[in-house]
What does this fold into?
Amino acid sequence: MSGPEFAPAPPLTFVIFGATGDLTRRLLIPTLINMTRAGMVGDDLQILGVGIEAGGVDMLLGRLDSFLDTLPEMKEPDRLEAWQRLRSRISYLQGDFTQNAVYEQIAQSLKHAPSANAAFYFAVPPQFFGDIAEKLSENGLTDETVGVFRRIAIEKPFGHDLASARALNARLLNQVNENQIYRIDHFLGKETVQNIMTTRFANMMIEAVWNNNYIDHVQITAAELVDVGTRGKFYDTTGALRDMVPNHLFQLLAMVAMEPPNSFDAEAIRNEKGKLLKALRLYSREDAEKNGVRGAYTAGQLNGKDLPGFTQTNDVRPDSNTETFVALKLFVDTWRWAGVPFYLRTGKAMKARDTEIVINFRQVPFAQFPRAPSRPQLPPNRLIIQVQPDEGLDMQISIKQPGLGMNTVPIALDFRYADHFDIGKLTGYESLFYELFVGDQTLFQRADGIEAGWAAVQPFLDLWAEGGKPDPYAPGSMGPACADDLIGRDGRAWHQPEDHPAAKKA
Ligand code: BG6
It folds into this structure.
């Protein structure tokens, strides 16, 4: 992100419901500071915080100041200066967002704002999404006129299963048009995720082999080192599958597997992503049983500290059968991907923080090279898209080992962002908010894509709702043994960072 490439976003009021909450200070304000600093927004951005807590703007600013004081990056003079500029344009409205009064006051405030444009961000629990959208609409706040936009931005979860996702979409679409709804999946704010399209469509040598003639299988891993911690209440009713798969992992899958769009218009891209997600095979109960496994971490050591097991975590039911790890084998039923399995896994309290997509190519059809007993087969080529941390791309190929004979050795052609670019300390929301403000929906999810994602995971939700328990795994491991079996019975193995010494820096 750098200033000169961007025309600043048009003037608008950014209305935050839930302004005194954690999300606002931790994420939204630091993002707006970064955007101010980079010139992505101008001094005509107004921020109107709405919250239930008593007090005026000084209360809100005081809280924001105290939080920002704790951030090391806020010692940088240009960030401080950006905050001072932004700070003077924040106002606060105390009120209950289930009541009409607050919406009347918002309307007044927008009337007196320099511009009538507004984006409403719902930093509130998901059960209020529908209510707020309805109240905004009833009070005329979502009405657009020529040259004036009104948009709403919401974060996952969009429902907790297929039926509730459909119901939420229907409720929202009853009040506002699809082109006014910005459904945020924060994975799409990551540079490495946005770069998937460039990797594929700006490079002939990559896209040319991007199909089932050359690709054996794809692995998508989002391993997290963090445990459930203080999020027991949320997590126990959510679980790893709902929390990560139909949203974040499916966004990665869609970027990797979609067909090339005709243009980079938001709708062209969202059409392709939607088509891809709709092509995910919908499993029967028996198929779901064969193709999905779940785990929950036990008590143990994580990062040198004692960790209680998931079921001993605060606010988690001791007899909970919620999973903290999930692994799935999925198929995309299209011409391009016929027969290519997509293995997905994600979990908490694992060995490392590692989000990666590994494209595993087929074996060469005929290998004339002598085979070492330790390496009876030539290792297949792999392209590893390292989403985070240590963001980069590496391509694993075989070369001749220097010296006599024709011995092959695998090496990695390795690209790391940090070696080439200084992307500074960003929240990952800067590009998402910029696009929200300029009205580009490319990085946001459309209703059909969300519903297609839920449809593909619904058989697993149904199966696991019948009972049974997740398999145990030790904290600091890569998940339960059943996940290794899921891929192992196909004669394949999960990619391990240490598989390839040159592939990752420690
Ligand atoms: C969130 C999940 O959506 O994504 C969290 O609710 C998870 O449980 C987080 O930790 C992962 O995001 P990131 O950007 O840290 O990989």
User: Anything to note?
Assistant: The longest strand covers residues 215-223. The two ends are 27 Å apart (CA to CA). Residues 500-506 have pLDDT under 50 and may be disordered.
